[in-house]
Amino acid sequence: MAGKKKIILITDGDSVAAKTLEVVADRVGGSCISASWGNPTRISGEQVVELIKRARREPVLVMVDDRGAAGKGKGESVLEYLVNHPDIDVLGTVAVASNSITHNGIKVDLSIDRDCEKIDGPVDKFGLPEPLGNKYLEGDTVEILAKLEVPVIVGTGDTGKMEGKDSMYLGAEVTTRAVQEILARSGE
């Protein structure tokens, strides 16, 4: 293999996210590991790495999802495995907000709201800015990011949804913009 594979992690993995991320990958000239979808993630970190190594175009978009599991769930375990893998270069993570109130959340570098605007704080599941004073994006697969070295964390609402604002039929504008922001900040 000629160097590390460049990937972007997305902390969502339901069927809508899977279809949306295929659109996003096409728009940014990358690949999507469609087999990484699942709510929760259904395949192991080792299996995901094998699929990443076979991807023809980069960046490779990879879904990880815990489905609200308390503690370190399957999605976070896969995320941690990928971040620490010697053959993988994680450019950044799209941290997806959920209705979770049992998780501490994480600080994001920025968010893309449902109108595709960059904001300095977190957003909620619908892609709306969180009230002033809330500094953390809450999601069921994001807490582990606080313990890992990930260069860029961009917050968004629910992938492919946000009351139609991120619809794959409209080009998945919000998620595409989040991925483009990670690429720009990584120099790709």
The share of residues in extended strands comes to: 15-25%
**Rg estimate, integer Å:** 15 Å
Number of strands: 7
* Major sheet summary line: 7 strands, mixed
pLDDT < 50 runs, ≥5 residues: none
End-to-end C-alpha gap: 19 Å
Structural class: alpha/beta
Strand order of the largest sheet: 2-3-1-4-7-5-6
Shape call = globular
How many helix segments? 4
What's the number of domains?
1
Give the fraction of residues assigned to helices: 25-40%
Mean pLDDT: 93
What's the order of the H and E elements?
EHEHEHEEEEH
Structure description:
The protein is α/β, with parallel strands linked by helices and 188 residues long. It has one domain (5-186). The protein is built from 4 helices and 7 strands; from the N terminus they run βαβαβαββββα. The protein has helices at 15-28, 45-54, 74-83, 173-186, and strands spanning 5-10, 31-32, 60-63, 88-96, 110-112, 118-119, 153-156. Helix 1 packs across helix 4 and helix 2 packs across helix 3. It is globular. The model has no long low-confidence stretch (mean pLDDT 93).
Map the helices and strands.
Layout: E1 5-10, H1 15-28, E2 31-32, H2 45-54, E3 60-63, H3 74-83, E4 88-96, E5 110-112, E6 118-119, E7 153-156, H4 173-186
Parallel strand pairs: 1-3, 1-4, 2-3, 4-7, 5-7
Antiparallel strand pairs: 5-6
Helix pairs in contact: 1-4, 2-3
